[in-house]
Write a structure and sequence with these properties.
Helix content is about 40%, strand content about 15%. By secondary structure, it is of the alpha+beta class. It has a domain at about 5-185 and about 255-315. The strands form 3 sheets. Strands 2-3-4-5-6-7 form a 6-stranded mixed β-sheet, with helices on both faces. Strands 1-10 form a two-stranded antiparallel sheet. It has a two-stranded antiparallel ribbon with strand order 8-9. A hairpin with a 5-residue loop joins β8 and β9 (about 270).
């Protein structure tokens, strides 16, 4: 710092109407917060001081740029509550919230969710390639929680924004997604429609295979083969779903950055330029600008981050629930098909609990399909007397 500037800062430092925060002091505190979080890398709570540091500094430097919206300010809100109904609340770790001095109203502008980044024994720090790879996995696993936070915010703050910038910090690697309300509504409808179509398709497959199984059950017991319920689905080529459950790009949130480093240098020299650009865009979305400081984007900075892997994992996260539902439905069908009802001549025969003439309707609601409604596949208890050895059994009667 030039002598004249140093003298000016010293003068301001002794002025009780001014608070002086030096860049070097701020970045030293930032480094200390990172060291604290990494010292207990298995604990998410150790990230909270770091998140508070970031958001509180941003809020202190933010100034609202729209006089039409009245007197508004940005404030740091730790453990912000997005209440909807009992036992369905969401609490992001740290949120930057817009407060109106006129209406005393509040809504989130953007927020940060932190996740611990456990280190392996041969990895010494979060700056390693192995740690960054693991952070990408945690990013994908965190998407359902971020969606729930966003949907709660849309429902809770009815007069708030219709889009939110959401930061995910995994260790010291961050990602930014922009969620749109209409987009989230559309993707929910899309997944529900695909789920119904896939279930309807599976009902048709079930009817065909159950009819075939019932026809085979009238054969002599000595000629029937006992097949265990653990037989892999791949061995039954007829249970193949054709319904496309891929979520298209237009229904996914906008992924701005994924798995980017938070800072540059060790010890910390500054926040990464991509992070500075991201927080300034989140500010601008809510009509805030930052006082000139080390939070400003470097002049003429431009970048084009590679989002290919992030988008792939994001889509997979959106499709995961639907795939799990269909997997469970197929397992229910396989359980039924691979545990055929015993013939009354079997020596280990036990009378079934229900009339086997109604076997189709016992486990699969096929009648609703015939009526034009979406069928359901509800699994039922199977007879415990079926063989589980996987070997062919023959009755003692020949």
């Amino acid at each position: 710092m030039a002598p004249n500037n140093e003298q000016m800062v010293t003068t301001l430092y002794h002025d009780p109407s001014v608070v002086v925060i030096r860049r070097e002091e701020s970045l030293t505190r930032l480094q200390n917060n990172i060291n604290l979080a990494q010292s207990q890398h298995h604990s998410e709570s150790r990230l909270y001081p770091l998140l508070n540091r970031i958001v509180s500094d941003l809020c202190s430097l933010a100034k609202h740029d729209s006089e039409e919206q009245g007197s508004r300010e940005l404030q740091c809100h730790s453990q912000a509550l997005f209440p909807v109904e009992e036992n369905h609340n969401q609490v992001p770790d740290v949120a930057a919230c817009v407060f109106s001095a006129d209406s005393l109203d509040m809504f989130p502008a953007f927020w940060f969710e932190g996740k611990a980044l456990p280190l392996e024994k041969d990895v010494e720090s979060w700056q390693s390639p192995k740690a960054r790879y693991r952070a990408m996995e945690i990013f994908a696993n965190s998407i359902p929680q971020l969606r729930q936070q966003v949907n709660n915010a849309f429902e809770c703050f009815e007069h708030g924004p219709t889009s939110y910038h959401v930061f995910l910090l995994v260790g010291t690697f961050w990602s930014l997604l922009v969620f749109e309300k209409q987009q989230e509504d559309d993707v929910r409808d899309y997944i529900e429609q695909k789920e119904a179509a896939a279930k309807q398709e599976l009902v048709g497959i079930a009817k065909k295979l159950i009819d075939r199984k019932n026809q085979a059950s009238v054969l002599p017991a000595a000629k029937r083969r006992r097949i265990t319920k653990s037989t892999p689905a791949a061995k039954n080529p007829e249970i193949v779903m054709k319904t496309d459950i891929t979520v298209p790009d237009r229904l996914l949130p906008q992924l701005k950055y994924v798995n980017e480093p938070l800072v540059v240098g060790s010890p910390v020299e500054n926040y990464s330029p991509n992070f500075l650009k991201a927080v300034n865009s989140a500010m601008a979305q809510n009509h805030f600008v930052l006082q000139p400081s080390w939070f400003n984007v470097p002049p003429n900075f431009n970048s084009h981050p590679d989002l290919t892997e992030g988008i792939r994992r994001l889509r997979s996260a959106y499709e995961r629930d639907l795939k799990n539902i269909m997997s469970n439905e197929k397992v229910a069908l396989e359980d039924h098909l691979y545990s055929p009802p015993q013939d009354s001549n079997d020596t280990t025969y036990r009378p079934p609990r229900r009339n086997m003439d109604n076997d189709q309707d016992r486990q699969y609601d096929l009648r609703s399909s015939a009526a034009g409604n979406h069928g359901t596949l509800d699994s039922a208890d199977t007879d415990s007397s079926h063989s589980t050895s996987g070997e062919e059994e023959e009755d003692s009667d020949t």
